[in-house]
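Example 4.3 (complexes with small molecules)
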Amino acid sequence: MDPLKALADAERKPYWLDSPARPEPRQRLFGHTTADLVVVGGGFSGLWTALMAKERDPSLDVVLLEGRRIGWAATGRNGGFCMATLTHGLANGLERWPEEIDRLERMGVENLDEIERTLERYGVDCSFERTGELHVATEEWQLDGLNEHLDLISDLGLDYLPLDQEQVRAEVNSPTYLGGLWERSGCAMLDPARLAWGLREACLRLGVRVHERTPVRSMSDDGTTMTLRTPHGSVGARHVALGTGVFPPLLRRLRHFVVPVYDYVLMTEPLTEAQLDAVGWRNRQGVGDSGNQFHYYRLTDDNRILWGGYDAVYYNGGLVKPEYDQRDETFVKLAQHFYDTFPQLDGVRFTHRWGGVIDTCSRFSAFYGQAHGGRLVYAAGYTGMGVGATRFGANVMLDLLSGKPTDRTELRMVKEKPIPFPPEPVRSGVIQFTRWSIAQADQHQGRRNLWLRALDRMGLGFDS
Ligand SMILES: Cc1cc2nc3c(=O)[nH]c(=O)nc-3n(C[C@H](O)[C@H](O)[C@H](O)COP(=O)(O)OP(=O)(O)OC[C@H]3O[C@@H](n4cnc5c(N)ncnc54)[C@H](O)[C@@H]3O)c2cc1C
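Answer. The structure with flavin-adenine dinucleotide bound is encoded below.
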């Protein structure tokens, strides 16, 4: 089908947020108040922090301030792959923290188990399905990558199932697949917006004071109390936790470590039974292909296909702007790739198209820290894999605020910071050249040019 025709009626908004289940925003903050802990940001990072702060100590007075609406940003726009990995995949973690990887993998699985238990505890219905993720190779050179991955994981005793061409097509039927690897328990599919709204509800039930449409404009510290100012009020608190993602940070030092990268997504109409039969997909895994520029895709609870990824776009200057949420060039490319992958779904149309911004850092996985004499903590840099990992990051922030070392705060991964990005305009030049090199590698059997190999040696890179 002509991609332009297939996209003609697609709404220009995130499918997940376009739902009657979206709750009315909580009231803005008016006037001055005090609290024990102020959490800034109403994405997964802030929501988990507020919720677990109350779970750890129900007597704590917690205020959460969100500049717009709960879950409106990356949290309500993502693919809904809730992964166990805390390190943006095993290979990245093994490369950077080999001596800790066993622990990091174990903590990641525990974190995902805890997410599942939390949903049960609070009755959060976000269509959580622990189906795992199917990594597929669509080019010969990608099969080598999957085999290398298999060698890595066999030592760690993880639950992966290698699939040859026939087996992988029996799972999900695409003529483009050459082989695959099914990571069976380390990933769940969910509806991210309903998760965010469910966490909001759980926070409210435990007594967190949530204010939406309340951006924090500035912050000051008199040595014992942090004061956060908003357009119509202020909060004084002993402790502050920042879960502000990629947005202009209240703590200036963070802007060296995180860059905004835009990622784009399409959603189809629900498949009919006959269309579903034509693709199989009875085990409902999330799927990711294995190029450097990769697609991720999955079924929703009403059997639509979410189809995203491939172009990861950095706009020169590194700003976050509403107009970047739409990119027709990418939508057309994504639609074409969809029909190339599933020619039997020719005729299926798209109902939604949207983009969202990712907080990319040079080590691809979140970093953590404190400032203001330990009164302020932060976690950022999830680089496109924060649906599950933000809960771990929230625990790290609360551990740091407690002042007592824990298994988490003792990790080298937690203690170290990523290498900062250079300032603009060099930053734009470096990132665009790296993006170009990555695209070239995909077109030349994965061969990495001198620049990418130099970055690899320094443990640096660009990803989404
Ligand atoms: C298109 C797309 C697809 C993705 N797919 C996946 C996926 O499948 N799996 C996965 O694991 N991850 C995925 N991600 C990444 C994942 O969505 C994020 O890692 C995660 O949502 C980050 O949550 P957060 O709370 O840190 O940030 P955000 O969701 O960005 O929330 C930050 C919040 O802070 C608020 N804020 C900022 N500054 C202030 C201020 N001064 N005052 C008050 N409020 C403020 C913002 O308004 C915002 O609501 C994807 C991301 C995108 C964009």
